[in-house]
Amino acid sequence: MDIFEQGKRIMRKDGNMKQWTGGYPTEEIIKKDIENGNSYVCLDEEQNIVGTFAFIQGNDPTYVQIHDGEWIDDIRPYGVIHRLASTENSKGIASACLQWCYRQIPNLRADTHRDNHILQYILKKHGFQYCGIIYLLNGDERLAFQKL
């Protein structure tokens, strides 16, 4: 959970004040990721955990409808990256995560808050294309990306 707190601090320093508020992600959500086999960690050379993310292969209910755009491929199976966070002092965690996920299934989707300019930049740098807007189950808007 400390890594998620560090991730929040990174976002706040970059001006992203609205994402991951209200206690999100909760310990309950993270435990569910672990129980479902969808929680992963990134280790440094000394085997310290420096990053974490959820990677889920299969349909995401929030991706069924996309607004103001369309998915590049809406037929083939895909993997989804959620809750990506790293320690404040680590570098390259998002890149390592995206590369690892792409090796698992070469059709990836991700979404992020409009104010998360860091992740938008990283996604585009790694070949993700902006596809449109999706809405989370609570109604919050997210920018949706896909890489084939």
Characterise the protein shown here.
The chain has 148 residues and is an alpha+beta fold. It is 28% helix and 28% strand. It has a six-stranded mixed sheet. It is globular.
Write the layout of secondary structure elements.
Layout: H1 2-13, H2 27-35, E1 39-43, E2 49-57, E3 79-86, H3 93-104, E4 108-112, H4 117-125, E5 129-135, E6 141-147
Parallel strand pairs: 3-4
Antiparallel strand pairs: 1-2, 2-3, 4-6, 5-6
User: How many angstroms separate the termini?
Assistant: 31 Å
- Note the main sheet: 6 strands, mixed
Give the mean pLDDT: 96
Structural class comes to alpha+beta
Radius of gyration, whole Å:
15 Å
Widest β-sheet, arrangement of strands:
1-2-3-4-6-5
- Secondary-structure element sequence? HHEEEHEHEE
Name the poorly predicted regions.
Answer: none
How much helical structure, as a percent, in the residues?
25-40%
CA-based shape: globular
Count of helical stretches: 4
Number of strands: 6
Residue share in β-strands: 25-35%
At a glance:
This is Acetyltransferase, GNAT family. By secondary structure, the protein is an alpha+beta fold.
Q: Descriptors for this entry?
A:
148 residues; alpha+beta; 6 strands
